[in-house]
């Protein structure tokens, strides 16, 4: 009754074509481990909490070896995004993922926000701190003299 293709036993094959390898999922590395891989023998970078081993890609990187080495052992998320990498570059990058940064270490790599830059401003008007009381004192003195002389 069902005129389907003979021998179509491809169940499950669909998922694999979308994402070739995600065996890194659930593999966590500590920040210290990431930081140790900052040399040409082993270069790891962090992009969006995922750890990429780009050691073998250094020489092939169209943007140059140097930019990747500079980011070795650190968080390259901002630089990666600033470049505006193509979809192809992003797809390619997935093949270098080896794991994720341990959740406990994620906030350590977060850039400190600018909220703490609310410093004391009172210094800017320091001269008014004494000029106003001095003028007030002068007025009081003059009034005292004026009334006491009458
Ligand atoms: C696994 C990580 C990375 C992969 C797979 C990758 C791949 C690529 C590819 C395929 C290109 C060619 C242009 C494109 O298709 O967008 C490219 C260009 C470039 N990449 Fe990367 N990249 C990676 C990480 C980085 C990082 C971390 C930086 C910055 C520190 C960077 C900086 C650049 C620059 C400056 C260019 C040249 C852009 C241009 O000439 O317009 N890349 N990259």
From TrEMBL:
<dbReference type="GO" id="GO:0019899">
    <property type="term" value="F:enzyme binding"/>
</dbReference>
<dbReference type="GO" id="GO:0046872">
    <property type="term" value="F:metal ion binding"/>
</dbReference>
<dbReference type="InterPro" id="IPR036400">
    <property type="entry name" value="Cyt_B5-like_heme/steroid_sf"/>
</dbReference>
<comment type="similarity">
    <text>Belongs to the cytochrome b5 family.</text>
</comment>
<keyword id="KW-0813">Transport</keyword>
<keyword id="KW-0256">Endoplasmic reticulum</keyword>
<dbReference type="InterPro" id="IPR050668">
    <property type="entry name" value="Cytochrome_b5"/>
</dbReference>
<dbReference type="GO" id="GO:0005789">
    <property type="term" value="C:endoplasmic reticulum membrane"/>
</dbReference>
<keyword id="KW-0479">Metal-binding</keyword>
<dbReference type="Pfam" id="PF00173">
    <property type="entry name" value="Cyt-b5"/>
</dbReference>
<keyword id="KW-0249">Electron transport</keyword>
<keyword id="KW-0408">Iron</keyword>
<feature type="domain" description="Cytochrome b5 heme-binding">
    <location>
        <begin position="26"/>
        <end position="102"/>
    </location>
</feature>
<feature type="region of interest" description="Disordered">
    <location>
        <begin position="1"/>
        <end position="22"/>
    </location>
</feature>
<dbReference type="InterPro" id="IPR018506">
    <property type="entry name" value="Cyt_B5_heme-BS"/>
</dbReference>
<feature type="transmembrane region" description="Helical">
    <location>
        <begin position="127"/>
        <end position="147"/>
    </location>
</feature>
<keyword id="KW-0349">Heme</keyword>
<protein>
    <recommendedName>
        <fullName>Cytochrome b5</fullName>
    </recommendedName>
</protein>
<keyword id="KW-0472">Membrane</keyword>
<dbReference type="GO" id="GO:0005829">
    <property type="term" value="C:cytosol"/>
</dbReference>
<keyword id="KW-0812">Transmembrane</keyword>
<dbReference type="InterPro" id="IPR001199">
    <property type="entry name" value="Cyt_B5-like_heme/steroid-bd"/>
</dbReference>
<keyword id="KW-1133">Transmembrane helix</keyword>
<dbReference type="GO" id="GO:0020037">
    <property type="term" value="F:heme binding"/>
</dbReference>
<keyword id="KW-0492">Microsome</keyword>
């Amino acid at each position: 009754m069902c005129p389907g293709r003979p021998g179509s036993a491809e169940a499950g094959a669909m998922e694999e074509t979308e994402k070739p390898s995600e065996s890194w999922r659930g593999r966590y590395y500590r920040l210290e481990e990431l930081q140790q891989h900052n040399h040409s023998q082993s270069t790891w970078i962090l992009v969006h909490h995922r750890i990429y081993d780009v050691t073998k890609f250094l020489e092939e990187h169209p943007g140059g070896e140097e930019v990747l080495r500079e980011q070795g052992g650190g968080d390259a998320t901002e630089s990666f995004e600033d470049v505006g990498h193509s979809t192809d570059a992003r797809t390619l990058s997935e093949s270098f993922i080896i794991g994720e940064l341990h959740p406990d270490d994620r906030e350590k790599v977060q850039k400190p926000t600018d909220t703490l830059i609310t410093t004391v401003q009172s210094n800017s008007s320091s001269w008014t701190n004494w000029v106003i009381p001095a003028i007030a004192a002068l007025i009081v003195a003059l009034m005292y003299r004026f009334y006491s002389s009458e």
